[in-house]
Each structure stands twice: as C-alpha cells, then as structure tokens.
Amino acid sequence: MKRILIAALLFTAALACKKRDEAPVEPPPAPKPAVMQTKADDSQKKLATPQPSVTLAAGAPIPANGVALWLQGDDARAGKVAAWANPLVANVTATAASAAEQPEAVAGALNGHTVIRFDGDKNMLMTNIDISPARMPEATIIAVFSSKADAPTPLRKLYGDDNGAYDRAAGIDNRAEGKNYTLFTGKGVEGDFQLEKEKPYLTVDQLGAKDVSTWVNGHATLARVETDYGEALPNMYIGGTGTSYHEPWMGDVAEIIVYARALTDQERTQVEDYLAHKYALTLQRP
Fold this sequence. Notes:
Blueprint: H1 2-22, H2 42-48, E1 67-72, E2 79-80, E3 83-85, E4 93-95, E5 104-110, E6 113-119, E7 125-127, E8 139-147, E9 156-160, E10 169-172, E11 181-184, E12 189-193, E13 201-207, E14 211-216, E15 219-226, E16 237-238, E17 250-259, H3 265-279
Antiparallel strand pairs: 1-17, 2-5, 3-4, 4-7, 5-6, 6-17, 7-16, 8-13, 8-17, 9-10, 9-16, 10-11, 11-12, 13-14, 14-15
C-alpha cells in the first residue's frame, strides 16, 4: 500500500514538471522605436542666443539709443585682462578664453588714459554681442586704437566675426592695393586708409544691410561701398578676426563702441568730438 502511494506521488510530480516544461515561453518585449535625432540648424541656434540687454547710465557723453557695447581702457585694472567691462553698460563683457589670450592694460599710455595692449601673437577677447547681419543688420563700430606695425603682412584684425566668407572685420591686410588698413565686405577686401604705426586713430565703420561707410579721424574715407555679408561667427572679437583664422592685432585699443543701428551725422559727430577731446586727437573734417 505504501509503495502504491509513493508511486502515485512520483507520477503526479513528473506530470507537473512536464506541464511546466511545455508552457509557452513569453517573448521578450518588442524594442521601442528609435527617436530620430536631428541636428539643429546653425543659424537657428545662433538666432536663439539672446543678445545682452544693455542699459546705458544716464548722463553718458554719447547717444544712449542703440548702444550694444562700450568698452573703455580706463575701466580695466593694470596688468593682464581676463575680462573687460564698463560699469556704465550693464551685461556686456569681453573675455579671454585662456591666460595666453589675455591682453595687458597699460595705464597712462594715451593722453593719460589706459589702453588695452594686444601682443600680436595670442591675445584676443571675445565679446558677448553678435554683430552678424542676422542679428544686427545695421551696426556702427567706433574705435580708438593704434598699431605697432604697418606692414600689410602678417594679417592683423582690430575686430571681427569672420568664419571664412569675408564677414564683418577690419584691420591690416595685404589684399587691398595701396591701403593697408581694410574692411571685409562679404565679397572681398576693401582698402580704407593707409595706417601708420604708433599713430592713434579714431575710426567709425557704419555697416548697413548692403553697404558700408567709414570715417577716419573725422574724415570720410569710404562712402556706401556695396557689401554682401552672409552668416558669421556668433560673437564679435576684439584683437582678432575670431576663431576661424589667426590674425592677431599688435597694438593698443583705448576705447570701442558698438551701436546696433546707423548713427545720424549729428550723432556720429557727437561721439567723435567726445573721443577726440578725451584722447587729444586731431579731427580732419571738411
């Protein structure tokens, strides 16, 4: 009897094991469909980057409307310049990407005022404004500067946002016959004036949507020269053309002002008079 009971139990256990072995195996879950990743268009990413909101303090000696950047050498401490800012203009800076790129603030170098000295090798500052036509169709760039070199090579740029298509940039170049200080026009290189080394200059570059006009020490040098600018780097650089090419400025920058619009003749004259008086420059108006 005991043997019969044990046999029955063994038979039942074997039957259960067989059913478990024959049970259908649940298939693994189907993989989720891959999400398509698309690369954002560069121009859209650039347009999505906000320009700094500029607040110009009351009583400034220059027109307040449309100021995008205003940097004065006097606002920098003597020594290496990691960041350059103006307490009169909120939220706008020019910074060095590394210690090697830091220019030097030199006190009393121009009519008792501090200048920012670029070594012609690695020094360059990146601003947080975008002067490309997509963001700033009209721009007026005003600078007080000097150069320690007047040879047309190597190429040297005072400012720029060039990514390889002759984008907005100005400085020494050998591709404009008879004039070593030039501007890019989007189509090539346009000669502006013959720069002399160690001489301070006050330049006004008025960049329109389709043309450029310039003044040097109050004297008109280019009048509505046709331009065809495309997309460019999303930041304006000082002391170079930007990151696509190595064209470092060798000399001093005392002050630089950028308006996100064209100035009237009266406004331009006001800025020129302020800078000429400050730095003891002689204007050559007709």
